[in-house]
Amino acid sequence: MSTETFDLVLRNGTVWTPGGPVEADVAVRDGRIAHVGSVPVGAGAQEVDCTGLTVLPGVIDSQVHFREPGLEHKEDLETGTRGAVLGGVTGIFEMPNTNPSTTTAEGIADKVARGKGRAWCDHAFFLGAAGDNVDHLAEWERVPGCAGVKVFMGSSTGSLLVEDDAVLARVLAAGSRRVAVHCEDEARLRERRHLVEGGAPVTMHPEWRDAETALRATKRLVALAEKARRRVHVLHITTAEEIDFLAGHKDLVTVETTPQHLTLAGPEAYERLGTKAQMNPPIREAHHRDGLWRGIAQGVVDVIGSDHAPHTLEEKAKPYPASPSGMTGVQTLVPVMLTHVAEGRLSLARFVDLTSAGPARIFGIAGKGRIARGYDADFTVVDLKTTREITDAWIASRCGWTPFDGFQAKGWAVATIIRGTIVMRDDELQGTAMGQPVRFQECYPV
Questions:
Q1: How many domains does the chain have?
Q2: Rounded distance between C-alpha atoms, residue 38 and residue 2, angstroms
Q3: Do 280 and 232 reside in the same domain of the chain?
Q4: Are strands 408-418 and 379-389 parallel, antiparallel or unpaired?
Q5: Residues 295 and 425 in one domain
């Protein structure tokens, strides 16, 4: 150690290793972690004093919608990833419901190309399953930059709707990577559309898209996944009943929930935020939120994803149900969830598992998800003692608003480091956008 030199040394922080927190230095060389422990003074070409700070593995947000191509008036890869790193997120998985939808290998390659020199954090893109691309999924899911396959069982954009069990069974039979699924039963949504047709208060949103709509789709998915023996990942779980059901199917099924479903509850959220609280599946009553927290406490939930899905204020101002569903979230994931840590709802160890180790484990990410020698030098450096207010003015998203405006956060990301490069420090971007496609273990050539 005495003769070694490093590109970057993080000094004197509380470092969250696979074995738990240790007071240590972290040394980086060539974009990867080279040493965790004591590092001689002056050994780093760049050194950062992390006294009083906590160095976490880089946070990975495995569900965002950055709207490019086709919907750039709401967001694009540059603005979306800018918000990510300002919030302490080092990697994102982006969803396929753009315009055109991302349903081909060429579509994935186009997004990868768009991210070069523009994306501030590392990134991967889901391949959308549709009725006309099932025969190609096994091949296309392995192209560089692909995070896996995404299925919408409930209403979405363009051709990205797989509501028929026969088509869904074909999707699950094609390929081997984990399939991420939006579970809402489209037939039940159509049956209940009359509840809001022609105009209704937004408080009716969770009544139209009720708990049974979600539970019915989730049960259908699991039955088909068990027949196909295919690993599936149920996105943005919102109901206590789904948590109880999925607890019995953890051999094949992993589970995501979101900061907003863990924090907001109806009807208060709708009365205070109006259509800003509108998303799919909906923000539900407090007893469902309590069920999600039980799912976290009992280990049923594997991942926290933000489901960042921005719309402009003008679009959100349309009368319900013409108003679009979705809200920002990638920039606020870390401070909102650290507040739950500060208030005792989950441990910091569980936070790390849900936002770093969990995504890496579930999706087979290569070289990320933990602070360990040889891994990518991705770090989310946080001050657990600070209190900051989240405001619309802080939000980098092109839409410029957050449902958490006025939220008093207890804990804040003070630096975002990606492969050894500091890209955010003290709320300021550093350098230039240098994000790269995320690598996956299953996709290396044999």
A1: 2
A2: 10
A3: yes
A4: antiparallel
A5: no
Are 82 and 192 in a shared domain?
A: yes
pLDDT, residue 160, reads: 81
- CA–CA distance, 194 with 198 (Å, rounded to integer): 8
322, amino acid identity: A
**pTM, two decimal places:** 0.97
- Helix (H, G, I), strand (E, B), or coil: what is residue 412? strand
Q: Are residues 161 and 287 in the same domain?
A: yes
- Work out the mean pLDDT of the chain and round it to a whole number: 96
Which CATH number belongs to the domain containing residue 430 in this structure?
A: 2.30.40.10
pLDDT value at 157 more than 60? no
User: What's the start-to-end Cα distance of the chain, in Å?
Assistant: 36
How many CB atoms are closer than 10 A to CB 344? Answer: 7
Structural domain contains residue 313: yes
Residue 440 counted as domain residue? no
CATH code (residue 94): 3.20.20.140
- Domain closes at, from 329, 363, 397: 363
Angle between helices 211-228 and 165-173 (to 10 degrees): 40
For 163, the 3-state DSSP assignment is coil
For 244-257, what is the mean pLDDT?
98
| Residue 154, pLDDT score | 85
**Tens digits of per-residue pLDDT, 161-170?**
888 999 999 9
Phi, psi for 10 (deg, rounded to 5): -95, 120
Residues involved in catalysis: 307
Are residues 65 and 180 both part of a single domain? yes
Residue 380: the pLDDT is 99
The first and second tokens of residue 29, run together, are 């060389």
Please state, in angstroms and as integers, the Cα–Cα distance from residue 83 to each residue in 358, 371, 404, following that order: 22, 23, 14
Q: Measuring CA to CA, which residue among 190, 205, 331, 194 is closest to residue 278?
A: 205
For residue 382, give its domain range: 6-55+372-434
Three-class SS state of 212: helix
Structure tokens at 288: 């469902």
Cβ-Cβ contacts under 8 Å for 350 (sequence gap 6 or more): 296
Segment 289-325, tens digit of pLDDT: 999 999 999 999 999 999 999 999 999 999 999 999 9
Q: CB–CB of 154/69 below 8 Å? A: no
pLDDT digits (tens, 9 = 90+) for 101-136: 999 999 999 999 999 999 999 999 999 999 899 999
Residues 163 and 28 in one domain: no
- Say whether both 227 and 256 belong to one domain: yes
pLDDT for 443 equals 66
- Residue 251: exposed, middle, or buried by beta-carbon count in 10 A (0-12, 13-18, 19+)? exposed
